[in-house]
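Treating backbone geometry as a discrete language has practical consequences that deserve illustration. The sequence in question and its structure tokens are set out directly beneath this paragraph.
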Amino acid sequence: MAAVPRPATGSSPPAAGSPPVGSPPADGSRPAGADAPPGTAPTLRSGTLGVADIIFFVVSAAAPLTIMAGVAPFAIGAGGVGAPVGYLVAGATLALFAVGFTTMGRHVRSGGAFYAYITRGLGRPAGLGAAVLALLAYNGMQIGVYGLLATTAQDALRTLWGIDVPWPPIAVLGVIVIWYGGFRSIDFGAKVLGVLLVAETGILMLLAGAVLLRGGAHGLELSSFAPKNAFAPGIGGVLAFAFAAFTGFESTALYRTEARDPKRAIPRATYIAVGFLGLFYGFMAWVIIQAFGTTEIMKAVAADPAGLFFTATTEYVGGWATDAMHILIVTSVLASLLAFHNAINRYGLALSREGVLPPVFGRIHPRLGSPYVSGLAQTVLALLVVIGFAVADADPYRQLLLWVNTPGLIGLVVLQMLAAASVPLFFRRFRHTEGAWRTLVAPIAATALLAGALWLVVSKIELMTGAGPGVNVVLVLLVPIVFALGVALALRLRRTRPQVYADFGADRAD
């Protein structure tokens, strides 16, 4: 058998574990705003999103205001005044992950992001396992949040206008609103998310400015960063909450086809998003501690964790800002739902083009350039889950949100870990000029740190769910079971549809 020539410097190798694959037909992406020519299939709008637009999508998915007002108090309760360090450590870990992730993105042009990278590093069975797991993870992260939307909207209506509304109608209305946002063009979604993101971060910065100007409750201090507080016994719980706060930042790669100059836009957006989130979370956690004082913050958290940020905003800014915060938390949740919905739609589109999902999921609206069939399917799934929980008389927060979100969170951490592990295996197969730091040192370190993060999340699962051991075991086991189903699907495709299997994860021209 003749030797296969090594690819030229800078080119990408075929996926692991199979013979070299040819490139599938080009996507034929069209410029923004252009209708598909007669007789050709509609495509995504190429060159539509700039760096700022992509940042709006991925930072909105994390929902900074909701994370700070709704989750940070529990992180402080778990780890004390050293909680800000937990967010900085999580941000640094994910920035390390981004080094290899974005480097590999310069060589892998598939729109499949996680599963494409894992396929090229760990092989097609692992790649298909990752693809199926990504569908579970992103849908879990998105659909569970409809429970949070219902509870935050209920709270806002009750607090501001004294109106009590059952949660199911709010959640169903939210599903419909998000479907419409995803149905519209990608630039429409970017504009909406940009406005909502500025509003939610703006209200937090207003609180921060007021606390800093007044000097906090007893003067500003940096004891949060002292080693005895930063490494207190509860820091593991803080890190579990902190890693959950970054979900969605890696979805920058899903917008490759729609980005302007993706080789530069995707890495920039990824680094800016993870850097902003890490610094913003750490800063705001420190600010809220200063607002109450390092000696009183734990009493305030124990007394009313859900109202911590609202109480501080009333004290330092005024009641009008607290009212605005109630509304902006609802819009923050809506922004997160729309960002995840768009990411899921593009996963569905990519898997349809791979031949894994039915071709109908690959249909794109001829005028709006949106993957509208994939979006409709995700909307129907969300409706079924929401209605199912409503019929079961489940609690929208403790059950719909926490039970559905938790497998999604664990799945995303697993995908990040596998993607990081794929980087050195990918680059060892061909000559390149990327350097050992980006292709070996940083990815290996990120893999180890993400494995630690995964252990923390699983070991502190009761903090995330508030459920009993039986429920927690089921939620955790869903992740390896779904991954195994994906691997089984890969082995079946290799036997029954060898060409689909051989082409899985291959590059598609921009």
In short: Residues 124-161 form the longest helix (38 residues). The longest strand covers residues 30-31. The beta strands are 30-31, 45-46. DSSP finds 20 helices and two strands in the chain.
